[in-house]
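Progress note, sequence design subtask.
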């Protein structure tokens, strides 16, 4: 089962591997397509003054991210992100088999790098959700250039745990599963991030391979409330205890 996952704006500062190259990412045959965006990003951020950088990155110390992403050391993508979902995933606390499950089966949709595997190598970088480059809508670019390859790569067991924004990067072209988390009858947002991380963690610990195994998975503090099915999508609705 392949799991589609969101990135996070929070990043770690790990620098354990060499800078990026063609072999740093899934789909090396598309590296030049990915590199086009990275080159444009590099050129653009180096054209901005400090005030413009702060505005573009949405932080006060934007100059700290005025770096050459082709020269920075890297770490596994799953270790680069440290937002809410990743805090609850607790990747570093998992055993090697569970980590391998995540590395091999999780596709993260980076706002800058596009679709990447959990064990692809990333430098530290900054890119707010929804930000673009001059004359380039990044989500539309990646959707156009990577969708066919993703369709071929993904098997018939897909769980989409991404936030809705990342549909703009890719929409599965076959049957897939999504999840909703509700509390007191209302869909939650912040806790949805946490439970996406928890779900991925429990899947990894139990080596979940298909829809039936997923439906039978016991997830702490979640009760299966309803299953909604359409032609291409199955939505599993959980009630948070």
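Output:
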């Amino acid at each position: 089962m392949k799991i589609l996952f969101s990135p996070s704006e929070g990043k770690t500062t790990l620098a354990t591997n060499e800078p990026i190259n063609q072999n740093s990412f899934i789909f090396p045959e598309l590296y030049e397509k990915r590199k086009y965006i990275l080159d444009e990003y590099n050129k653009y951020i180096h054209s901005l003054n400090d005030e413009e950088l702060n505005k573009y990155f949405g932080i006060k110390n934007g100059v700290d991210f005025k770096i050459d992403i082709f020269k920075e050391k890297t770490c596994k993508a799953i270790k680069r992100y440290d937002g809410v979902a990743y805090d609850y995933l607790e990747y570093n606390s998992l055993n090697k088999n569970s980590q391998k499950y995540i590395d091999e089966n999780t596709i993260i949709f980076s706002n800058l790098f596009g679709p990447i595997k959990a064990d692809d190598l990333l430098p530290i970088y900054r890119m707010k959700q929804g930000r673009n480059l001059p004359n380039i809508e990044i989500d539309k670019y990646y959707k156009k250039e990577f969708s066919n390859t993703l369709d071929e790569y993904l098997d018939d067991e897909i769980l989409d745990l991404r936030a809705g924004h990342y549909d703009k990067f890719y929409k599965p072209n076959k049957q897939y599963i999504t999840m909703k988390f509700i509390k007191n009858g209302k869909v939650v947002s912040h806790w949805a991030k946490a439970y996406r991380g928890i779900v991925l963690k429990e899947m990894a610990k139990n080596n979940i391979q298909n829809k039936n195994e997923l439906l039978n998975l016991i997830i702490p503090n979640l009760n299966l409330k309803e299953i909604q099915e359409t032609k291409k999508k199955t939505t599993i609705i959980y009630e948070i205890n």
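Residues 178 and 235 are 5 Å apart (CA to CA). Work on this subtask will continue into the next period as scheduled.
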